[in-house]
Structure formats: C-alpha cells, structure tokens
C-alpha cells in the first residue's frame, strides 16, 4: 500500500514527461495539461492505495486511455458540429463555437428568423433522440452528451462495452437518417 507521500512524489516525477507525451499526441498544450491532470486525478482516486511499484504502469495506461478518449470525443463532436452546421453564421473566416451560438452569443440573437430556425432545428433533434429505442438513447446521451467513456457507460447501463459501442453506432445511424428525412443537412 502506497502512502500519500509516495503517490505525490511519483506524480511530481512523471508530470513533465506525461505533459510532453500528451502535448505531442494532441498538439495543444492546454488540452494536454487537462489530459494529464485528469489522468493524475484518476490514478489518485482509483489506484492511490495500490503499491507504489504499480504506479508507473497504471499511470501510463490511464494517460493513454485519456488521450484516446480525447480523440474519440473530438471525432464525435465533429460529427455533431456538422449536424449543427445550420447554426453557423456563414462566414468562413471567423471562428465558430456551437455552444456560444446555442447560448445566443455567437450570432444574430436578435434576428427572429434565425432564432426560429434554431429552435425548430433543436426541436427536430430532440424529437429524433426521443424516437430512439431506450438503450440506444441511453448509450448515446451518456457517451456523447455527458462525455462518459465506454467503460463508464457500460457500467452505468449494466452491459458490456461492446454493447455500448453497438448501441451508439446504431443510434448515430438512426439519428442521421431521421434528421436527413426532416431536411437537416448533415
């Protein structure tokens, strides 16, 4: 059983190397710092009582999984950003943030036509999600909107990780077909 001093010393020892490893992988210092901090927190919370000799292997696995989760989330976000492209301002030169747009800060919030279009599109998306079978809907919301990893989602749903992946894949295909049928451009 490791002491808190041993855990602290280990984390201080690997901090720089882990940051460099994550920074090389994701090519963004801020994101890399977040990934390393999350990995350190997971090690401390879940495995802090393990023997100190197990820390290097555990931390490396946690860090690699955190990096992979980052790429998976970005892949899904890019899919949904494409779905929400009707919200963009149309200017290719300016940066576009979907969350700001949905909050009404990123585009013409005063324009009633734009507001109505967004509200109608959100209603279509909500309706499409509500039409999914319950297990697909649950997996989709947990994975992509609450950003849980596959293992956490499987644990919550009480099924295997393969089942979570299957439910999510089917949900994305079904949502895509439902939204395209309603005229939402993907």
How would you sum up this structure, described in words?
This protein has 2 domains: 1-91; 92-186, Winged helix-like DNA-binding domain superfamily/Winged helix DNA-binding domain (Arc Repressor Mutant, subunit A, Orthogonal Bundle). It is built from 8 helices and no strands. It has helices spanning 4-26, 29-47, 55-83, 98-103, 112-130, 134-145, 150-157, 161-181. The longest helix is centred in the middle third of the chain and has 29 residues, at 55-83. The protein is elongated and about 60 Å long.
Q: Keyphrases for this structure?
A:
186 residues, mainly alpha, Arc Repressor Mutant, subunit A, 2 domains
**CATH architecture annotation of the largest domain:** Orthogonal Bundle
- Arithmetic mean pLDDT: 81
Helix/strand-derived class? mainly alpha
The biggest beta sheet reads: none
Outline:
The chain is mostly helical and 186 residues long.
Provide the fold topology.
Blueprint: H1 4-26, H2 29-47, H3 55-83, H4 98-103, H5 112-130, H6 134-145, H7 150-157, H8 161-181
Helix pairs in contact: 1-2, 1-3, 2-3, 5-8, 6-7, 6-8, 7-8
